[in-house]
Design goal:
Order of helices and strands: HEEHEEEHHHEHEEEEHEHEHHHHHHH
Helix content: 40-55%
Oligomer: single chain
Shape: elongated
Strand content: 15-25%
CATH superfamily of the largest domain: Reverse transcriptase/Diguanylate cyclase domain
Structural class: alpha+beta
Radius of gyration: 34 Å
Length: about 375
Amino acid sequence: MYSALSSEIAQNIVNRTMQILPYNVNVMDKEGKIIGSGDQKRISMRHEVAIEVIHKKQSIEIKSEDALLWGGVKEGINLPIIISDEIVGVVGITGEVGKIRGYGELVKMSAEMIIEQSILEKELQLDERINREVISQLITKEHKHDTLFYKKIKILRLNLYEPRVAIVIKGNTDELKLLNRLTAVLEELIEENDLYTTLFTGEIVILKKINEINGIWNRKQTLQVLKIWLTKLDKLEMKVSVSMGGFYNHHTEWWKSYEEARDALFIGEKLQIKQRIFQFQEVSLYVLLSKMLPVIKENPIFKCYEDLILKDRTLELQNTLSSYIKNNGNSSQTADELYVHRNTIQYRVNKIYQITGKNPYVYSDLFELHLSLIADKLDK
C-alpha cells in the first residue's frame, strides 16, 4: 500500500478530533515520528510508545508513573491505525488514562475513517485521470491502441464494443466560473454508460451510448435526451452550442464520430444555423465544402460570385439569393420572407443573372450559386 497517512491527513485528524475532545491528540507514522499534533513543538519528534504499538500491533496505555520510563512520553493512550489489515500509523490521546479511556476507540475509528476517505478520493481522482486519458485517446485518430491503453480500459471496465455517438458541448464564454458550472450541470445529466471528458479548449466531449433497433440508430431518442439537457443548460447565463456526429459500433471508429461532431459545430456556428443541435448528417455537404474551400475559391464559379460581392455593397442581392435558395426557388415565399413584392424578387434575380452570368431560374446555375454562397460564408 502506498503511504496512506501523510502529514496533511495526520494534522486533519488532529484538528477534527480536538474540536470535540479537550485533550491533545498526536498522530504518528509507521516509523513512530509525530507528523500531526495539537502541540506543534512535538512535530517530527520520535514517539517511543508508537514504535512499540506498531511492533506489538496493539494499543498501549501509559500512566503517569510509567511516563518517565518512555523517554519523556506523556500519560495517555496510543492506538494503532489499521487500514485493510495493515497498520499505517498510531494515534495518541494525552491525558489521565482513567478519563480518556472511553475516547480511545472513537478517536481511532475517526482517524481510520478520515484516512479511508482520503484513499477513496485518491482512487477516484486516479480513475478520473485515467478516464480522461482514455477518452482523449478514443477520440484521437492517430492514437495507437497499445497494451497500456487496454490495461487502462480494464481498470475502468469499459465495453469497447457498443454503439456510441460523439457529442460536443461548448459554452460560448471565457469565464472559468461559468464553464465549471456547465461541467457540473452536465455531470448530473449524463447517464452512467456515457463517457465524457473536458478538452483544454473548454469543450466537453461525450461518447454517448445509443440504442439500436435492428441495427438502426434510434436518432429521435438521442435527440430527445439532448433537448432535455438543453432545457437545463438554458438556465445558465451563457449561450451553449451542441453538435453530434454519426454512430459507430467499435471503439476504433469512435474518433470519426468526434471529428464529425466537431465539424458540425464549426459549420453550425460559421453559417449561423438556427437549429439548437448541429447534426453532422444535416451539414455533411457543408463540411465537405469547407474542406474543399481552397479549391472552390480558385474555381471560375466562385469568381463569378466575387463579382456579385463587389457590386452588391448593400448585401441586398446576396440576401435575396440566400432566401431564394432557402425557399427552394419559390419567388412568392421569398417575397413574403423579405417583405417585398414578388416582382421585386424577379427583378433582383435577373440582376444576379446579369452580374454573375448564372441564372437562378436554372437548377444547375442555382446550385453553383449556392456553392459559392456557402463558400463565401465559410471563408469569412
